[in-house]
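Translate structure to sequence.
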């Protein structure tokens, strides 16, 4: 009898460990215009499903190397930092972190990347650490998330076997410039920064987490055996493997679970997870990132009529959605609305044709072929509640830590699509 009780106890403990729900919150959603604007009242229903709320984003002052708000008018003057952390009163289970970087810090676009310069100098690291500690304590955050803006990988084209062989042959004679000439130094210095932050946070019980941004190579910049014991968990940016910004002429699945034929073998969730596991990271510290949006491309008349990816001869990012208004990016409500349109409509108002994923390996996509004049073509690879639940099932089966949703403001927080608010978030949480 005792053995049975112990076995059940272990199962319960394991299921709890494998059920982290990390919710990213883009603070700019508070000041968007139109239906994409998310108020605090809109945010609150999501928090019953979240154990962690990650506030994005803060940045680095390129002159002082201090942690700074990226929108001082909202974060400080309008006291949004404190408004968010006060949500803990109604949701005592919630831990609220401040995230730095996240590809939102425009200072990184200057000639000298402050995220690298900071690492290289002990005094700069001290300035950052001290300012982070002060900011977190002042506004009652529970920890800091490092969505560090390391240089991105070089873009790789989708190629057939012949092209790959020819490129490999040419590679013997022409080497590609590395993304960072001092990568090994920065890798070691990042360990020092993480260790210094951990030591500074210890007396106040503050947490420290890591977010790996899409297209940042962990093997280049992260000494996993040294870093993983110092952080509470890592959120993998396991999405946006294919985007219209990086690959304007080829549309493809953006966040597959498993490797696809004749694609970059690293561009899938399973590869990213296995890499961290194989480099000493415990499964319960790994959360996979799931997007609440899709990436879109314009299909040309030469892109064919089947919609089967990869789609060649694309004409760049698709039109901005009605909600987010960013070309090439569509929130789930935007996508859902296009899928549900009347089939009798035509032109740019015509609905998208959905193609599901019965094997549950790569995700759903939807498309509208270009007409005879080459107009109105559109291809979208996206996340929906069912595919998000499949990824949560993968997390549970692998004994991983949980799921990080990027982000709650791109889910259907108004319940426009099916009448239920936050359908993607709900599907993940219920599956876990």
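Result:
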């Amino acid at each position: 009898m005792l053995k049975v009780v112990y076995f059940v106890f272990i199962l319960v403990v394991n299921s709890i460990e494998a059920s982290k729900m990390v919710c990213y919150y883009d603070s700019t959603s508070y000041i968007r215009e139109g239906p994409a604007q998310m108020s605090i009242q809109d945010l609150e229903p999501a928090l019953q499903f979240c154990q962690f709320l990650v506030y994005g984003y803060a940045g680095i002052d390129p002159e002082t190397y201090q942690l700074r708000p990226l929108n001082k008018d909202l974060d400080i003057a309008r006291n949004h930092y404190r408004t968010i952390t006060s949500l803990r009163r109604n949701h005592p289970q919630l831990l609220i972190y401040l995230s730095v970087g996240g590809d939102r810090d425009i200072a990184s676009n200057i000639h000298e990347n402050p995220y690298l310069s900071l690492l290289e100098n002990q005094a700069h690291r001290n300035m950052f650490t001290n300012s982070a500690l002060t900011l977190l304590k002042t506004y009652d955050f529970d920890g800091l998330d490092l969505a560090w803006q390391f240089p991105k990988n070089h873009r790789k084209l989708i190629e057939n076997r012949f092209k790959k062989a020819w490129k490999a042959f040419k590679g013997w004679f022409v080497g590609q410039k590395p993304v960072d000439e001092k990568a090994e130094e920065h890798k070691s210095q990042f360990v020092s920064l993480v260790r210094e932050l951990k030591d500074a946070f210890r007396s106040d019980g503050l947490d420290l987490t890591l977010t790996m941004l899409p297209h940042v190579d962990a093997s280049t910049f992260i000494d996993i055996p040294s870093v993983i014991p110092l952080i509470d968990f890592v959120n993998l940016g396991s999405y946006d493997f294919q985007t219209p910004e990086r690959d304007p002429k080829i549309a493809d699945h953006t966040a597959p679970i498993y490797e696809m034929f004749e694609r970059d073998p690293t561009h899938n969730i399973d590869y990213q997870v296995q890499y961290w596991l194989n480099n000493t990271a415990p499964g319960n510290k790994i959360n996979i990132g799931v997007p609440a949006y899709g990436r879109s491309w314009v299909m040309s008349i030469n892109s064919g009529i089947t919609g089967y990816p990869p789609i060649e001869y694309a004409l760049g990012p698709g039109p901005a959605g009605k909600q987010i208004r960013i070309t090439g990016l569509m929130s789930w409500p935007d996508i859902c609305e296009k899928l549900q349109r009347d089939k009798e409509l035509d032109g740019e108002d015509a609905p998208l044709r959905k193609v599901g994923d019965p094997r549950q390996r790569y995700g759903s996509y939807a498309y509208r072929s270009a007409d005879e004049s080459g107009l109105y073509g559109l291809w979208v690879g996206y996340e929906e509640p069912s595919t998000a639940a499949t990824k949560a099932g993968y997390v549970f089966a692998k004994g991983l830590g949980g799921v990080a949703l990027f982000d709650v403001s791109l889910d259907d927080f108004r319940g426009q699509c099916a009448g239920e608010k936050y359908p993607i978030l709900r599907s993940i949480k219920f599956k876990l």
